[in-house]
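pasting for the record
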Amino acid sequence: MSYEVEHNIPKNDPAPQHTRRPDLSTFFSNLELVNTSTTQNSNATPMPADMRAVFITLSDAFRSMRQDGGGSLLDTLIESLEADADSPPREVKGVSDAFLDELDRVPKKSLKKADSCPICGNPFLDDKYPLVVRLPCHKDHIFDLECIAPWLKLHATCPMDRKNLSKKKEPPPPPKDEEEEDGEYDEMFA
């Protein structure tokens, strides 16, 4: 006899929890094998089979999202990943962890009920604590960080408009000093 039956506790069968995204631990493990940015050997290059495995595991994860209802962007990403797997690059050309950490976060209060991730298709507000980021290429390019991070670790481009995100922004020119415009010199630097 179970505890619930002994103590007359009604069984509450909660609905099975639907996971929003697949487990990407295998992807990140494979990524560690090919990521040469952290190695001290400048001549280290990843094995083509390891590079292929990284692209295949991410395309498989995206494919499982597609079964849950992802959109046409997801199909495009899967095709791109499969093409990369067929002829893997010699090195990973993705963004750094620091870049991902510095992405603008979108506050929950600014999200609308209809807003959803372009990759997984899930509404942002379905998550109790959504972690939504905005890419610097366009103000409307917002994604679940869990969806966009794997793509950006392999490609330094926005999946929507393919703009390169790894280019550094030009710093604004320093303001001109009024004294320099007059042609006068500071006595200290004579």
